[in-house]
Amino acid sequence: MIIPTAQSYTRDAIYNPGYSNVTIRADKVGRMMIVLTVENQPSNALVTDVLPPIEEAKGPRDIEQFSPGYALVTITSDRIKGYDVYMDGVFYSSDIADGVLDGTANFRVGGNGIHTITISKGGTFGTPEYSSEHTKSFQSGYHYLLKI
Fold it and tell me: Could you tell me the pTM of the whole model?
C-alpha cells in the first residue's frame, strides 16, 4: 500500500513464488516509491510519479502555430481530390491524411531549405492522371499556400 503523504509506511508481505499483484492508489500529485527486498537486501524499486492533470484544449488548434525550424504548407484544389504529395521524391502526405477527402493537404517541411513538392493522382499503368511539380525555397516560420 502506498500512502500519498510525506510519511514513510512500512509493511512486510510474503508472496508466493510466481506472479503477485499489488494495488497502488496514486490519487495525489507527487512521487511514491516501493522498495522490494530479498533477504533484507534491496532488489528492485518501483517509482510512481503522479503528474497534475493536463488542461483541456480551449478550442481548435491554431494552424499557424507550429514548431520552430519548419514551414507550414497547404495544398488546396477544387477540382482534384485524392492526390498524393511527394517531397524531394519521397511520399510525404496525401489529400486524405486528415481523414477527409476534400482536396486539401496540410503538412510541415524543413525550413530554410529548397524542397521539391510533387502532387500526383492515380492513373493507369504507371502513368499518373495528374502530376504537378513545384520547387521552392521554404523559410522557417512561414505558411505557404499552393493552389492546384
Answer: 0.53
